Automatic annotation (TrEMBL):
GO terms for molecular function: hydrolase activity. Keywords: Hydrolase. Coiled coil: none annotated. Transmembrane segments: none annotated. InterPro entries: Isochorismatase-like_dom, Isochorismatase-like_hydrls, Isochorismatase-like_sf. Residues 4-178 form the Isochorismatase-like domain. The keyword Hydrolase applies. This is Isochorismatase.
Length: 186
């Protein structure tokens, strides 16, 4: 029987510190995580992880240079850990990616097939990064998805608004964490 999975993407300590605007992002995300767990929906965590000295990324790439200069996403660094307010439970899957999208340089396809997943619920930081790249991949491969707009966050609120109100609705359902949690509790 095919099913839905909740993806919690790039909600790592350093990223939360940079992006959290004090609007209650982590509690909203926690609402979605708790609802998924209660409904038996797999929660799959996706983290960005670059090896120290970044041997797996071309420094000629602007975003990789920016990430490296900021000291973000280094495997094993405390700042690269999943934020403790939304940390995985023992047995929940954590997938490490090497680029922006949840499917980049990892076994995400295998993880989804193993769980018989045919619908994704997207959350994470940043809306213009991991959420957008993952949405593009899902859209290109005809994998249905839903975006929880208030369980996504971006450094640029206008970009977040444009993506969640204009682009993503062309491809998928866009709703809030509370509305989604209520819909799966029925």
């Amino acid at each position: 029987m095919a099913k839905t999975a909740l993806l919690v993407m790039d909600v790592q300590r350093d990223v939360v510190e940079l992006a959290d605007d004090g609007s209650g992002y982590l509690p909203r995300l926690r609402t979605a995580i708790d609802a998924a767990r209660s409904a038996g929906i797999p929660v799959i965590y996706v983290v960005m992880g670059l090896r120290p000295d970044v041997p797996d990324a071309a420094r000629s790439t602007r975003i990789i240079r920016t990430v490296e200069e900021a000291g973000l996403f280094t495997e094993g660094a405390r700042g690269s850990e999943i934020h403790p307010d939304v940390a995985p439970l023992p047995g929940e899957t954590v997938v490490t990616k090497r680029r922006a999208g949840a499917f980049s340089g990892n076994d995400m396809d295998l993880v989804l097939r193993t769980h018989d997943v045919d619908h994704l619920i997207l959350t994470g930081i940043a809306t213009s990064g991991v959420v957008l790249h993952t949405a593009c991949r899902a859209n290109d491969t005809d994998l249905p998805f839903t975006v929880l707009s208030d369980a996504c966050l971006d450094l640029d609120p206008e970009v977040h608004r444009t993506l969640t109100e204009k682009l993503f609705p062309q491809w998928a359902e866009v709703t809030t964490a509370a509305s989604w949690a209520e819909s799966i509790a029925r």
